[in-house]
Amino acid sequence: MSCTTKLMSLNSHVRKWRVQFAIALYPVSMILDAETCYRALQARDPRFDGRFFTAVCTTQIFCRPVCPARTPKFENCRFFSSAAAAHAAGFRPCLRCRPELSPDLLTQITTASTVNRALRLINQGALDQGSVAELANRLGMGDRHLRRLFDQHLGISPLAVAQTRRILFAKQLINQTELPLTDIALAAGFNSIRRFNAAMRDSYQKSPTELRQAKTSRLSAMPPIGQPAIQIRLPFEPPYHWAALVQWLTPRVTAGVEQITPAAYRRTIELEGAQGMVELHPVEDANYLLAQIQFPKLGCLSQIVERLKQMFDLSANIGEIAAQLGSDPQLQSVVHALLGLRVPGAWDGFELAVRTILGQQVSVAAATKMAGRLVQIYGAALPEPQGELTHLFPQPTALAAADLTQIGLTLNRSKAINAMAAKFAAEPDFFSRFTDLEDAVQQLTQLPGIGDWTAQYIAMRALREPDAFPASDLGLRRSMALLGCAVQQSELVALSQAWRPWRAYAAMYLWMNLNLSLLKSES
């Protein structure tokens, strides 16, 4: 189908995606097809790992689809869309397939942006010390409405999600680290050792000590650098195109704060007034990234892990995304060439917003150079630099009134960063209060110097909105032309309707296609 023909036929097809992909995009346990799930279970098909969990009524245990245990009878099985739903129904996690190692696909409910943001905050520990009412307030709504959204989209309560997260994360730390059990209780978000012991015994019928004594493979300790480092596996749904991620991030790393090589990504971090470092690298023939976390406050560990998952887009339903975008005639060749491509996220929303403003109307190299200057002047220096990692990214309070023209910014862009910094200094949870993509773009564009392109780009990478799409980006139209479909902005918007709800991923495919074309021309 030609580009022109496709534009003419959009009106008859653009609305069909909601029907075609309704089951795949709306993972509530009540709509799972039991027979389909059972066939996947019989085949131990790894493509379904994280998409559903099988609970066995006779044993009261729930498993991943890839569990090596003998397949139970169909009549004894119940199927759930999440580990939290299975756990809330009274089933215990399997000790053989270890549900805590399943890809975390729960935060990819494309029809419920508010629920996605709530899940990310819960995974960062929002309900470990706070209440559902406080979480709802951070999201700009009442707690009754938040509970209603969870019941509608997940079939379980926010508290049930939080409790399952604590248990599975604690189990992962027991298996993969040498941390003392008291430290694991703190890191997983339990308020007391007694509650930690009770929850683990109720879930596994074993005490934490017995779980640790079981024959499991723990990761070897990383040589200590200052604070001892913790190694933990971060699973994902394969494939994962690490090389494309490195190619995208390399020209964008901020000197002093980040470092990237084909084998690893490292950066400095700051949370709750404490400083540390993280490092991630791929493991050959494994469906996880290995994270090394060096941070003095163990209570922040779950928050760090969740931020890393979002930063490296480890919760993406990459199979669904590739299937839909790969069926588009214009994107087919790019999708097949870059299977496993992710949308890189951000460690910190404010940092990404500043970097985005720095990149307005200048090249990537120029924006990166200015970001390095910004860090050197306004970022806190590490007391013990680690190679190229020497600084933390500046805090909002440091940039709210700074004269940034001295790093090469125009006065307007300097004021735009000042306004963004002042907003975050006054409202640290600003990015969690948007109800959906439209609301996010509307509120962001009310800030000085923030146009639609900047708002959409921030929504893509910082807010993790899968349907964000900076249609005014010249690179997207240049890439479409390289694919044989030269379009104007309005035509690109029309074509992109067929890519919903994954337009952010379509944008990444187009940008990477442009990058690959430039590399070929240079060689």
Describe the structure.
Helix content is 47%, strand content 11%. With 523 residues, the protein is an alpha+beta fold. The protein has a domain at 32-101: DNA Methylphosphotriester Repair Domain (3-Layer(aba) Sandwich), CATH 3.40.10.10. A five-stranded antiparallel beta sheet has the order 5-9-8-7-6. Strands 3-1-2-4 form a four-stranded mixed beta sheet. Strands 10-11 form a two-stranded antiparallel ribbon. Strand 6 and strand 7 form a beta hairpin. The chain starts with a helix and ends with a helix.
List keywords for this structure.
523 residues, globular, alpha+beta, 11 strands, DNA Methylphosphotriester Repair Domain, 26 helices, five-stranded antiparallel β-sheet
List the helices and strands and how they pair.
Blueprint: H1 3-13, H2 17-20, H3 22-25, H4 34-43, E1 53-56, E2 61-63, E3 77-80, H5 83-88, E4 92-93, H6 113-123, H7 126-129, H8 132-138, H9 143-153, H10 158-176, H11 181-188, H12 193-204, H13 208-213, E5 230-235, H14 242-249, E6 258-261, E7 264-271, E8 274-282, E9 288-294, H15 301-311, H16 318-326, H17 332-337, H18 349-358, H19 364-378, E10 381-386, E11 389-391, H20 396-399, H21 411-426, H22 437-444, H23 452-461, H24 474-482, H25 489-496, H26 503-522
Parallel strand pairs: 2-4
Antiparallel strand pairs: 1-2, 1-3, 5-9, 6-7, 7-8, 8-9, 10-11
Helix pairs in contact: 6-10, 8-9, 10-11, 18-21, 18-23, 22-23, 24-26
